[in-house]
Specification:
19 strands, about 10% helix, Porin, mainly beta, about 375 residues
């Protein structure tokens, strides 16, 4: 009996010592959260795959070709398998990694650290990450309200958006409502406006700033944001022909109003406007360009597992046509979603003429493992 009491007391003392020792290390507390997300789809359009590849977005006046990363072909598509890891590195840092697998290969989509304990409401991030520019840029495809990104994002930023190695500093402003200021410096050359051909000696960078506000009005949450990015464009064609070189600025404004009816049901109106100004280094070779685009969407979460949405989008100035999309999704659980989307798109040209594209996407998304909550 005495041996049992002694052993019990010893175990208890060792446990308390482990809890109180500042130098102790418990590996179990640092096992990363791991998740796997798989997204696949069936696509049917009224044009061939080659026609889709040869379409030109009117926002670029037919200069740069089109960008499409998901649901690219008629028929079946395995869009990606996303492997994500998250953990505390120690008491000062968190670490995240997101890896994309698709039929063409493997990509490090994000790999970054985030600070946990900076003073004055500051937070820093470093590595490769999605910028907080705008409303959608930092979101992964599987949490979009629609199966594809808005046209203005595809054209100005590419479907991957502003996603590159760099550094970020954010300040949570001590105001009665939520206000966040952010500054980022990212490596250029990630696609879209900011090109794909840079001499590594140049060290070209993108400079990004944004202000985000959020407040409640009765049962509605309101988000208002302003964003800005400045950098060098150096865009070449597949055959090496220079298409544009100069400085480019993009200004963004976004608004979201989300009104809850109960714990699950809500209606969310979201709109975003982007204005792009491109100034050529040599106006004898390239003309200055000015363009803007927008999308506005209304999403209704009917119940816990049912959601439907309507989106209208297009470009302004020297562009005609627009795109309208409607979708409905059903979640069998928080780990699986089925989505059906129809789009009518006449904002693209083919051989100089506008061509309407009717597209149906049936998309399935599955998730396993521990996956962190997404921001509003």
């Amino acid at each position: 009996m005495k041996k049992i009491l002694v052993i019990t007391a010893l175990c208890a003392s060792l446990s308390l010592a482990g809890q109180n020792s500042s130098g102790s290390f418990d590996q179990s507390k640092f096992i990363p959260d791991i998740s796997l997300i798989i997204d696949m789809s069936y696509v049917n359009t009224n044009v061939t795959n080659d026609d889709l590849d040869n379409n030109e977005p009117t926002s670029n006046y037919g200069d740069y070709g089109t960008f499409k990363e998901f649901n690219t072909d008629n028929g079946f598509n395995l869009n990606y398998a996303e492997l994500a890891l998250h953990s505390n590195a120690d008491q000062a840092f968190e670490l995240d990694g997101v890896f994309h697998f698709n039929p063409e290969g493997v990509e490090v989509e994000e790999a970054y650290f985030t600070t946990k304990a900076l003073a004055y409401n500051l937070r820093a991030k470093g590595g490769k990450f999605k910028s907080d520019f705008g409303r959608l840029n930092n979101q992964h495809q599987h949490i979009w309200d629609f199966a594809d990104a808005p046209l203005v994002y595809n054209s100005f930023l590419s479907p991957e958006g502003l996603n590159a190695p760099g550094a970020q500093l954010q300040w949570l402003v001590p105001t009665p409502w939520y206000m966040k200021l952010g500054f980022e410096m990212l490596q250029s050359g990630n696609g879209g406006t900011y090109g794909n051909d840079f001499d590594k000696k140049d060290g070209e960078s993108l400079y990004i700033g944004y202000l985000k506000n959020s407040f409640d009005i009765n049962d509605a949450s309101v988000l208002l944001g302003l964003s800005y990015v400045n950098g060098t464009s150096n865009i070449i064609d597949e055959d090496g022909t220079s298409l544009y070189k100069g400085n480019s600025e993009i200004y963004g404004a976004d608004v979201s109003v989300k009104n809850y009816f109960d714990s699950y049901s809500y209606i969310n109106w979201q709109s975003e406007f982007l204005y792009r100004q491109m100034k050529s280094d040599d106006t004898t070779l390239y003309a200055d360009k000015e363009q803007s685009g927008y999308y506005t969407q209304l999403v209704y979460q009917v119940a816990e597992n049912y959601k439907t949405g309507l989106r209208y989008e297009g470009f302004l100035k020297k562009s005609n046509g627009a795109k309208i999309s409607v979708d409905a999704s059903y979640k069998t659980s928080e780990f699986a979603q089925l989505r059906l989307q129809y789009s009518h798109d006449d904002a693209f040209k083919q051989n100089g003429n506008y061509k309407a594209i009717n597209e149906i996407i049936f998309e399935l998304t599955f998730a396993i493992g521990a996956h962190g909550a997404h921001s509003f």
